[in-house]
Amino acid sequence: DAMVIQNPRYQVTQFGKPVTLSCSQTLNHNVMYWYQQKSSQAPKLLFHYYDKDFNNEADTPDNFQSRRPNTSFCFLDIRSPGLGDAAMYLCATSRELAETQYFGPGTRLLVL
Amino acid sequence: AQTVTQSQPEMSVQEAETVTLSCTYDTSESDYYLFWYKQPPSRQMILVIRQEAYKQQNATENRFSVNFQKAAKSFSLKISDSQLGDAAMYFCAYRAPWDMLTFGGGTRLMVKP
Prior knowledge:
The complex is a heterodimer of chains A (112) and B (113).
Chain A: E1 4-7, E2 10-13, E3 19-25, E4 31-37, E5 44-50, E6 53-56, E7 64-67, E8 73-78, E9 87-94, E10 102-103, E11 107-111
Parallel strand pairs in A: 2-11
Antiparallel strand pairs in A: 1-3, 3-8, 4-5, 4-9, 5-6, 7-8, 9-10, 9-11
Chain B: E1 3-5, E2 10-14, E3 19-21, E4 24-26, E5 33-39, E6 46-52, E7 60-61, E8 64-69, E9 74-79, E10 88-95, E11 102-103, E12 107-112
Parallel strand pairs in B: 2-12
Antiparallel strand pairs in B: 1-4, 3-9, 5-6, 5-10, 7-8, 8-9, 10-11, 10-12
């Protein structure tokens, strides 16, 4: 089945140690999004890619970076995780910006 | 900026009964899209139902239906014949064309057997 896959599902890192989260899709969608979701809160958009064009939200900290080496994969890099970065990170895709977003299962990040 | 408000942080419903989750939004756009997403505990967010603002007819998907009141900027979700598997966080979301999703704060739905 076509889907959005996130690896790993759970990630533990140490304070200040860089970490990379992975997202892949078999939907061949043009747009990929990264959201941060803290407990019992709404997802907060960090950035999105339209094809290779990167679009950062104005309030996304510089600590968060992203890469999209090809259509199928997108990575979220957290350069120096702080305790406040512990959250669920959701990847989503859509065929076009105006179309419905489909979410992956998320990666829960724990920072020790 | 658009805002989406879900005024009910938590709701509960008896199995097999009907429940309505509220959502209001603020926008100056005339053309936009509204969504309800369901996020079960520790599981992924899935789309429940979608409504285009230009369509007057309320969207329906099996036991899920919406009451879209464009003038009142209201978009409520009705779940009929509630099932245990309906227990989840429900997020209302808004999107103007070529813009990003704006989510409401969510409503946690509990289903009592």
